[in-house]
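Marked as duplicate of an earlier ticket. Keeping the data here for the record.
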Amino acid sequence: MENKTFSFGKVKGMDMVEVMNMETIHANFSGLQYLWGQYKRSTNDTVKEEIAECFKTYVGDYIVRFGKYKGLTLKRIDEIDRSYLENYLTHNDNEEIRIVVKTYLKYNPKKINQEYNTYQQKTYACYDELKQRINGSSQSSIEQVIRILGYTIENGKFEHCPWGCDVHSRKYRHAFLRKGADASYFVCCFKCGEKRNFIKFVCEKRGYDFTEALKWISDVLGITVLNVAHKSVAEIKKEFINTDEEILLEKMMLQEVNLEGFGFNKGVYPPAFFKRGLTVKDAEEMEVYFAGRDCTNGFRNRICFLVRDLNNRLVGVVGRNKYSEEEYYDYCAKKLGLKGINREEQIKEIKNQNYKYIKYYNSQGFRSGYVLYNANRLVNSDKEEIFIVEGPFDVIKMVKYGYKNTVGMFGHSLSRGQLYQIYQLYKDVRDKISVYLIVDNDEAGLKGFENNVKSLQELGFRNIYKMILEGAKDAGEATKEQADKAYKTAQLQAIKYNKKKIIVKDYDTDLKKAVE
């Protein structure tokens, strides 16, 4: 008997099993991704019914494209290793894989009825023991794992924030490794507000699920577990199976900033500002000023970006040194009379006299991880697009080029506080609005891109595009032609991550609650 065919859209007249197993059907989407996307978005009952029938009837013929059983159908894998379906594939990162496997288990007449089999009992007990052993390791051992991840850390202090908020600083030391009240290690950054349990930190940085991270860390530390005592899996199942079913957002109201002492002179900007192709009009439109000779605080000789929250309150000032690092040390060497010695000795002496170069300087109490630059102008916006870039200059250039709905992260990755702001702005239109992530053409920018896609998809955003600026390092250095081309050729990202339960931690009330 021939398989049934579909009667709609791109797959009209095509065999259901063939479509389900197509590696590529549209753009970067596989046949399975296409069908699951259509099922979730379509308002046509016929479309939904046909896809549901396909999954129920033919799901056993779905061919797995990864892992140790790559190339085999679910039906064949079930015959070889039932536990692989129940204990691994049902928790895969890809939503569509979880759906087809759970559909197969639901409609297969051989479904095992017991809640937990012996294999699961032993497996989860082993994972629980590994977690306890990792948490019981010395800090120096955990630091060694972090170094293998590619970060520099000594005595619990990172050289740079692992989420990139201080990538332009020189050993600014905002990020730390600590042990919490629950005896587990965590990584946090006091500047951007990011905080992760150490094991989940490894999950994020290596793209692992929780159990994969446990096994990798254990291998690095040489931890082995033999003859694990029997434990009730019900007691520990939630941590290992549901650990990634929630996304935590953070809310914090920042203190307002007083501009007394900044000494801004209207219309006065240093040459470095105009070299970027910007004008006085551009600056004043975006509330960018220069703290010059009349400045009486630490912002002197800095281009200052005023940062407002979603209520339009002024909550921070970010000051960028008007000098490049090389220009700054030339200036200091001349000021301190350090002629006749080489550059390395000059820099050493300048630092000894407390004149170290600091590219960015923030107003006291400002937490960049809880605000997006320019997001205040997006409140009540009816546009169906948002553009996300890294720094303030990137935002100004994009706005100048006509992309008014552009916000800046002050780094490479969206923090929990910034995700909360995006959620507040677009929570009712997440399935409709297009989110454009403009990627810096460097290693840190590309690495942060995937983290941002993951966070936004878990938050419920589905139309996420990757914008690559050809011939420019970032938006701040791009021409309008380069920005327009990147917009027109932006790549829609396949849906890899399922929407999660949203939890908001409110630091103003010290309460945590589910909002969805």
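See parent ticket for discussion. Residues 118-135 form the longest helix (18 residues).
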